[in-house]
Amino acid sequence: MTDMAQSHYQLGMNYFQGKGVEKSFSEALKWFRLAAQHRHARSIFMLGRMYDKGMGTAENPAEAAKYYQQAAELGYSRAQNILGQNYIKGRGVTADYDQALHWFRKAADQNFSDAQYNLGLMYAKGHGVPKDFLEARRWWGMAAEQGNSKVQFTLGHMYLVGKGVKKNYSKARQWLRQSADQGLPTAQYHLGMMYLRGTGVLQSYTEARTWLQKAAEQNYLDATYNLGKLLSSGSEEVRDPTLAVVLLKQAATRGHQRAQVMLGHHFIKGIGVAQDFQLAYHWWLEAANDGSADAQYNLGIMHLNGKGVTRDSLEGKKWLTKAADQGHTKAQYCLGVMYSTGKGVPQDMDEAFRWKEAAEFWETL
Length: 365
Description:
The chain is mostly helical. The relative contact order is 0.04.
């Protein structure tokens, strides 16, 4: 590699990033091509990336794969790793697990942590090799020790749920914490849930709030919901019903079913927000249409009582039946009462017995 090739590469990167010059993918391509003529591996890799993503040229995965191959053969670990991924996906090349393993191993042997992670995945899934969690863990351990947050989370989650290893909450917390400290929202969420539930750690709503909030700030949906739930019903030191409503609404608006159900309860009871039966009905209807048995039950009760909506026994029965068909015991019991008393439906003791028996069955499980 010549100094001129390195200069051409740096010029290409300047145009690619808009560093000191106006960003121009076409100019970047020109300088990368000049450097590539001197077998400059990074420039060849960047040509592959630009063809892969359609930057300054038409997207062409096959052409990209050719450049990745050239850079990989020159020993460039990033190219080796992406080439391995392409062989997994069949992008620009024919899918081939053996080739994927070959290139992942080449990059992994250079301590490229993403390749070590991918190689571990191959062993964990049994792709091209016999399934072997011990070998997967060995490669993931190498990547995690280098500070790869994604791999640290993977190891932490393995120890948390006991997948491929014996459950070890201490190691789970260790790896999740390292990943969470690097800002990975998935790790922050799971660490927060460990503190929320007291799983392998001393239960701490304050710690749970800290980690769930970090994940929620990165728009991690389950973290937003669980933080809202914690602020709604947690202990005194963290309870904040007004902020809970804000968070639950964020999650509910993004389609989180349990957030929609809980938000409906806040509007029904006027907790942290002005009481509003219509908004409660709105959020429960969203969740009910998405299949939530709790929301279906709540709508049924609203229609039977005429609370916030016009009293309508047929509509109430419809929603209670939907919930009851999913095994919702309260809905089943209500239907049993309706049929036994003839309230809102024709009296039918057989139907009354059927629904009450179903409720008793589910409660014994």
